[in-house]
Amino acid sequence: MVEDMLPDVTKLGIDTAPIIYFVQTHPIYDVVVSAIFKQIAAGRIEAVTSMITLTELLSWPIQQGSLQLQA
User: Fold this and answer.
1) pLDDT value at residue 13
2) How far is CA 42 from the centre of its chain?
3) What's the pLDDT score for residue 44?
4) What DSSP string runs through 4-67?
5) CA angle at residue 64 from 35 to 28, to 5 degrees?
6) What pLDDT, on a 0 to 100 scale, did the predictor assign at position 43?
7) Please, what is the angle between helix 16-23 and helix 51-64, to 10°?
8) Alpha carbons 63 and 66: distance in angstroms, whole number
């Protein structure tokens, strides 16, 4: 599936939303983002993101005191 949609992609910029969808197992988007993250884990795609994404991802868990989500 992902191989067909992104056949020549070797590096992919990932914003905050897809990471949240992956972590929260979003009912609509999980199938797609999980397939992309499997490609990343297999080393077929290199993922890059920004410090802004990291900040956005950690803000809510820090506010909630959720050590599990911070890890």
Assistant:
1) 96
2) 14
3) 93
4) HHSTT-SEEE--HHHHHHHHTT-TTTHHHHHHHHHHHHTTSSEEE--HHHHHHHHHHHHHHT-H
5) 25
6) 95
7) 40
8) 8
Per residue of the chain (71 residues), give pLDDT as tens.
777 888 899 999 999 999 999 999 999 999 999 999 999 999 999 999 999 998 988 887 777 777 776 56
How is residue 11 written in tokens? 């590096």
Structure-block tokens of residue 55: 């900040």
User: Cβ(54)–Cβ(62) under 8 Å?
Assistant: no
Written as one letter, the residue type at 8 is D
Tokens found for residue 29: 């988007």
| Tokens standing for residue 28 | 């609509």
